[in-house]
Amino acid sequence: MVNSPGPIPRGDLVPSGIVGLLGTQGPTSRTEIARALGLSPATVTQVTKDLIARGLVEELESVPSKGGRPARLLGLVTDAGVALGAKVTADHVAVVTVELDGTVRSSVEHEYDPTAEDAIGRLSRILAKEIAGLDDRLLGVGVGVPGSVDSQASGIVDAPTLGWQAAPVGPALRAAIGTPVLVDNDVNTLAAAERLYGIGRDHSAYLVVTIGRGIGCGIVVDGGIYRGANGGAGEIGHIPSWHPDGDEPPCTCGSTGCLEAYIGAAGLVRTGRDRAVIGRRGTLSTLLHAAMTGDGKAQQIFAEAGAMLGRALAGVIHTVDPEVVVLMGEGVDGWEFWQTGFEPSFRRSLLPARKEVPVVVEPWTEDQWARGAASLVLSSPFDSAGNGGEQSRLVRAKLGAR
Q1: Are 188 and 157 in contact (CB under 8 A)?
Q2: Which tens digit of pLDDT belongs to each residue from 294-318?
Q3: Which of 127, 204, 198 is nearest to 364 (CA)?
Q4: Which of 32, 204, 302, 341 lies 20 to 30 angstroms, CA to CA, from 45?
């Protein structure tokens, strides 16, 4: 059974939903298309007939059915479009070009200073350079940022780590590059990618938790990303926390004692230096290397971080009640050391009915952030909740027009 990213709007944009489904899920029968998108078989037959005539879709091999004639699979004939994804960080912008099936076709990084006077203008020029040559194949641009975004459709950003407050990222980029632009919190973009290509194809309620420079959480409920009243849901890195040392280190948000101030990258390095496990110039890589080469003190730092994460995450589980948790981010490279503290702390803190909730740790590559941003565009055909507003509508219109 095909598990869809969600129903699509009715009307003349139905073709974009069918093309999007075939692109993200591969060859599919008409019956499965109808079931996945909530369409009538007659509508699917009519629309796919037109798509076949236009050369976008073709009939492939037959597969056995549960009765009657074998079902014919439908697949895309050509590349129906690409999306550009950009992940903005404190020192660079990662940009990828992604096909409808999630394949990363190209990947590049640009040095970037978000605190510069013309930072958003510089971002516009970076993206304009990358979209040159894509012509009408470009469906839109997705941008992921480490902060709160009022809405994907608007794209006004508050990101303390970038020095941005009410930054008009979406409006400025649309005006500069002339294509649909959707903006969201970077962890939410990873949750969107999981909905299209990963664990979200089998689950409608899940958490995507990232460990690395900070601690983030994307929340998916009933198949849609939960963003909260102001776009800031999932900031679990700023849960007030307690540490055995009893101190309350300052956090980038302006508060003290936040979870990520203890177990984000900077917090782990600070602990490693304070305990003389690494030198004053030591980095997180230095600390991880020490753990991997058998340094018990280094391993203990990661285990304590895992225990703190486990306790905090148990509280989120009790609040949201997800089917599964996905862990990813740069920090999973050292997960074997986190896990020794995480697993007992997490399970011990859960109510009996929640103790068996699965935690899946996914391998990490740097371009996943930017691929997630591109998923904001590629999920537009399934945006029945209207998260992308006019920008999603423009993407769907482009896809349908092809």
Answers
A1: no
A2: 999 999 999 999 999 999 999 999 9
A3: 198
A4: 204
